[in-house]
Amino acid sequence: MKNNPILKEIKILLEDKPKLFMLLYPYMLVIAIALGVYFVLNLNDVARQSVPPKLADTTAVVADLSVIAAKSVPAADLKAISQPSPELIENGKQSFQKLCASCHGESGNGAGPAAGVLNPAPRDFTSSENWINGQSVTGIFTSMEEGIPNSAMVAYDYLPTEEKFALLHYIRSTFIKNAPNVTTDEIAALDQTYNLSAGAEVPAQIPVADAINLIGNEHNKEIKKYESLFNEIKTESVPGSFLFQRVSNSPVQVLSILEKSSDWRKSVSSLNDFLLANIGALCFNQTVYNLSATELETLYTYLQKKV
Ligand code: HEC
Questions:
Q1: Domain membership of residue 220 as a residue range
Q2: What are phi and psi of 282, to 5 degrees?
Q3: What spacing in Å lies between the alpha carbon of 122 and ligand 1's midpoint?
């Protein structure tokens, strides 16, 4: 064993460090390059995140207009109702017991018979805490006009302005201690926001997507109508039909234009003028220049019968 020539060689090598290094260097280089190539080829995996990004997909949520029924808000005499009066408060009480007490409670403490299951719970009017729109005339009016989103408090916008003021005067004078006074500025601002003294016509509104569908359906119906008329024309082997097909670039479009216009109906020459005035990709082609008088006459008679 001691005289094994290979072992001897290795021993010499181990002692000669530079030579050993030079011998191993090519192998190390190959390994380094192989690792490098592997890394580059798999860059996609290296860069891939294992945790999916939490960003919301904003393209998925498309807010559209809500459906609003048309309504008219009758003009209100703000001078007469902006300050509380015994009569207004009495009216407000009647209305409150009918419309609001089931949730807010007869005594306004938010503990009406329907309140138990509601989350958020109906406002306790006797507490001054956590009001969203506030205890001012503007605050309570706004709550009635718009409701409180994501709660059982729906909008009571359909109530007449007088009734809303009666309600808020009743609530403020009966349940709320030290309610902030009504100011004329406040009333003026409310008036401007909700058109109270002028009254307002609120037009109906439907979601844009629905409107587009409606328009699209109308349009499709119309196209169908002219398509079937053109199909009928195609089946007729009469000179008028051939002439129509010859002069029309876009027969379906042409039929719709012809039907909607009365310019060409008066006489043969008015049809001639109409043809010449409507040469184009979506209408008639250049062959209308070459129509003979008889052809024009034939086409006129045919179109009058068909369109
Ligand atoms: C179906 C139950 C229900 C009825 C009926 C109801 N409310 Fe409410 N109301 C609520 C709830 C619930 C809240 C609390 C909403 C919140 O805190 O998010 C609330 C809150 C309010 C507030 C406080 C808004 C604020 O600024 O925090 C006012 C004012 C109010 N209602 C007025 C009325 C009036 C006036 C009526 C009757 C015309 C009425 N409510 C009828 C459930 C109801």
A1: 209-306
A2: -95, 5
A3: 5
